[in-house]
Every structure is written in C-alpha cells, then in structure tokens.
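Worked example 3 (structure in, sequence out).
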C-alpha cells in the first residue's frame, strides 16, 4: 500500500488493470521495442475519499512536443468551450480589466474568444506542439507546467488573475498541492478558480472503466475536492454538471465562502447515495468491469468467426485502455479511424492496431465499428447516418455493451 497524494494517509487498492502503455502514446512500428508500460492500479483513500492512480507516470512522458490530443478537432468541444468562455465573461462582467488564466489550455480552444474580444488572458500549456497551435490561433500562451514558480512569474508580469480555469487538466497532475499552491498565489482574493473534470459519480454509474488511465491521476468527486481545496484556503461555492467526456462536473471555488447553492446540496445528496466515500463501492466495480470485458470480447470474437469486418472509431486515449485490458488487437479490429493527423498512420499503444485517416472508414465502410469515442456518441451518430442506413452498426460498451443500428432496421 502507498500513501494518498492528496492527504498522505494510507490508501487501499480497489481496481487493478494490469500492464498498460501510455494511453495517448500512439507510435510508429520502429518504436515498438522501446514502448513504455506501467502497472495501472486505482486506489481509494479512506480519510479524504480521493480516488487516484497508485503509481503516476512521469508527466514529461505524457505531455511533450508530440502530444496527440487537439481539442479543436471536435465541433462539440468547440461549442462547449465557447459556452464556458461566455460563462466566465458573465461572472467577471463588472470588472474593468479582467485577466483570465487557463491551465492546460491545449490549442487555445477556450481562450480564443477572449483573444478575439481583446480581453487579457494567458494559456499555460506544457505540450509544445499544441501550445504552438494556440499561438497560431492568436492566443497568448506560455509553454510550461503550472506550478508555484510559473504562478509567481505570471503574477509579476500580469498581476493577479480574476479567473483561473482548468478543463480536464487538474486531475492529470500528480503534484496536486503544487497546482493548488500556484492557484493560491495567482488568484485574486475575490477571483474564481473554475475546474472541470470527468465526474467520479458518472464513471461509477456508467461502468466507464476506460476513464481510468495514466493521464487521469485523480478522480474527483465533490467531497474529495472539498477536502483538497480546503487545505489551500479555498471553498467550492457552486457546481454545474457537464455532458462532455461522458459526464463531467464543473466546480466553482473561491477564497471567500458563499452560501450553499441548490446544485451543491443536490450533489452532496447524490454522492451519499452512491457511496463515493466508501472503498467497498469501488471494489464492487470489479464484477461489472469484468462482465463488460467478457461481453465485448465475445461479440468481437463471434464477428471474427463470421468474417465480418470490424474497425474502431476514434483513436482515443480511452480506446487504449479498452483494447489492452480486453486483449483486443488487430486480429479482432482491422484498424482504428481517426481525424487527428498526428495519430494517423501510427499504431495504437500496446496492442498496435493500425490508425488510419477518417477517409479509410468512409471509402470502404466496415460491417461494424467499435465506438471508442462513445462520449461523442450523439455527434457521431448524426455524422454517420449514411453508414447506419447502409447497414453498418456501431458497437458500444458504455454504459453497457450493445450494438447500435439505424432506427427502424429489420433487427431493431
């Protein structure tokens, strides 16, 4: 047993996924011999309720000049982050010259609106390639990790931040107290710290085990995040559920407490009902995860015997967890289609399934496609109506394993 990265107490291992590669580590064939693997175990802290990875991977191995995720490739994410920018502007509407800082700003997808409106802003992004893309998009960006020294430098150059925003990034940082201390340094006394990440309650309810991978060091719920922020003089003043990434939560924290909101109280009751402060809740996930794995492998094995063509849809980080945990390789999935250029003509981490451009999917439709990007299901089903109309079928595994057909088909 190890110690909790949030509070230092002894943690308990509740889930074990075995040997795993870097989930976003798409690679060329010549890189196979040197591919890095780690042991993916998920732990629970009985003292502060934090769910976390047992042994985090060095962030330098994950966030670099070849980082494979560009948020702007999804129209849904563009809409989501534009709405987030509008919300932040509304929170700061009475401030004369607001300054907004984003942690892990990726390709500048959220800050573009502030850049276009001439609002003071700064993105802090550790991956050089996506940081360069943000700069090309007109977004002020600093390529570095967000820690105390970075916050001190920003404060000296720009003054305090009226809002610090982080989407799907704070849970990625093993040295979580360094991040929180940096927020303390940079945030205005009446400023907002706004963070959103995949919500642990949704992971649990949907058996979304593919959310457990190396980049996600922590899995927040309200109670665990309250405990963490409290150590740094901050309080959660409101929450707002989000539909992206399979179910996320946006948390609003401040140095000064405010009266509790209805949404905050509702979430507290939900977490009590789900048992998110009990290790047994997460140990109980094991049977559901194993059942999901068995069902998916059975479907793919049967289709393989029937000589049906099966491909993957979306070379996501989550797809790496599913393929490696389930032992799904190129014998069961011909290739994975993806629209991200940096992933194309490479191979998936660990299982080495070829990753091909989206054109390969459209030009020669398969019989079935495994919907690895299930969190974009609505957007994808609308986009691929022709595939479905022509008899193609999607296989999904969250919240359960099933086959999706075009409405009104003979087997509906």
């Amino acid at each position: 047993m190890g110690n909790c990265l949030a509070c230092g107490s002894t943690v308990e291992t509740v889930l074990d996924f075995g040997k795993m590669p870097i989930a976003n580590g798409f690679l060329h064939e010549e890189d196979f011999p040197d591919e890095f693997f780690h042991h993916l175990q998920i732990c629970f802290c009985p003292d502060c309720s934090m769910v976390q990875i047992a042994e985090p991977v060095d962030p330098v191995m994950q966030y670099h000049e070849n980082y494979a995720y560009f948020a702007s490739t999804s129209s849904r994410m563009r809409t989501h982050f534009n709405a987030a920018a509008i919300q932040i502007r509304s929170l700061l509407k009475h401030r004369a010259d607001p300054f907004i800082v984003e942690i892990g700003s990726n390709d500048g997808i959220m800050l573009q609106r502030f850049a276009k409106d001439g609002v003071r802003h700064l993105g802090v992004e550790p991956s050089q390639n996506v940081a360069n893309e943000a700069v090309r998009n007109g977004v002020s960006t600093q390529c570095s990790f967000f820690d105390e020294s970075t916050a001190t430098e920003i404060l000296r150059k720009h003054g305090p931040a009226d809002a610090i925003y982080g989407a799907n990034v704070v849970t990625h940082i093993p040295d979580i107290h360094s991040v929180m201390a940096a927020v303390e340094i940079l945030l205005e006394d009446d400023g907002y710290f706004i963070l959103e990440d995949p919500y642990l309650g949704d992971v649990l309810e949907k058996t979304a085990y593919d959310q457990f991978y190396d980049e996600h060091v922590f899995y927040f719920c309200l109670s665990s995040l309250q405990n963490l922020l409290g150590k740094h003089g901050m309080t959660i003043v409101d929450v707002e559920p989000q539909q992206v990434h399979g179910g996320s939560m946006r948390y609003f924290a401040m140095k000064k407490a405010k009266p509790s909101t209805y949404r905050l109280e509702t979430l507290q009751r939900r977490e009590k009902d789900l048992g998110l402060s009990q290790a047994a809740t997460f140990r109980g996930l094991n049977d559901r995860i194993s059942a999901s794995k068995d069902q998916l492998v059975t479907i793919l094995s049967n289709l393989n015997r029937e000589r049906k063509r099966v491909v993957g849809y979306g070379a996501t980080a989550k797809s790496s967890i599913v393929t490696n945990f389930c032992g799904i390789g190129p014998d069961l999935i011909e290739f994975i289609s993806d629209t991200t250029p940096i992933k194309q003509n490479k191979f998936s981490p660990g299982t080495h399934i070829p990753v091909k451009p989206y054109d390969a999917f459209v030009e020669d439709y398969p019989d079935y496609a495994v919907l690895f990007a299930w969190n974009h299901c609505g957007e994808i089903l609308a986009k691929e109506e022709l595939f479905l109309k022509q008899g193609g079928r999607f296989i999904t595994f969250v919240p359960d394993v099933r086959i999706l057909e075009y409405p009104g088909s003979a087997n509906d």
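Notes: The longest strand covers residues 187-198. Residues 297-404 form a domain with the Rossmann fold fold (CATH 3.40.50.720).
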